[in-house]
Amino acid sequence: MKEKYFEDFSVGEKIHTNEKTLSAEEIIEFAELYDPQPFHVDEKAAAESPYGGIIASGFHTIGTSFRLFIDTGVIGTTGMGSPGMDSIRWIKPVRPGDTLRVEAEVIETRASRSEPGRGIVLMEFRTFNQENELVLSMRSVNLVRRRNVENK
């Protein structure tokens, strides 16, 4: 996909990513480093949990979703970071073997009042599994370079 400047984003536009399948090993490795709760790292404990087996950390799901979006190339050198997210909702557990894809919808665009070289693009990220079930939704505030405007 072609890289976009702030002016190229349109409200209602949807950006679709490729897919990524998460393995049990990848889920456990991430969780051991960053979210070592038993239902993420211990198969026996996970089997006895309300989830009935290993599930991915929600933060792993967020990271995977954002990586899929970045890999589209939409905000390569034009991305200027993010001041934060407005909401994050984990809807359904992600399990080993699940294949994720993301639909990112532009909700709002506005020029920055304090930094004329950038614009603000509010996006709703929706992550789906291979059954087309929603597993994650989050709203991200993205700073994107403006075309032909001095950037600091």
Q: What characteristics describe this protein?
A:
single chain, 152 residues, alpha+beta, Thiol Ester Dehydrase, Chain A, five-stranded antiparallel beta sheet, 22% helix, 34% strand
Order of helices and strands: EHHHHEEEE
β-strand percent reads 25-35%
State the share of residues found in helices, binned by percent: 10-25%
> With helices defined by DSSP (H or I, 4 residues minimum), what is the helix count?
4
Shape estimate: elongated
What structural class do the secondary elements suggest? alpha+beta
Q: Distance between the terminal alpha carbons, to the nearest Å?
A: 26 Å
Describe the structure.
The chain has 152 residues and is α+β, with helices and mostly antiparallel strands. The protein has a single domain (6-145), classed as Hotdog Thioesterase (Thiol Ester Dehydrase, Chain A, Roll). The chain has 4 helices and 5 strands, in the order βααααββββ. It has helices at residues 24-34, 38-41, 43-47, 58-70, and strands at residues 14-21, 84-90, 99-111, 118-128, 134-145. It has a 5-stranded antiparallel β-sheet with strand order 1-3-4-5-2, covered by helices on one side. The longest helix is centred in the middle third of the chain and has 13 residues, at 58-70. 30% of the residues are buried.
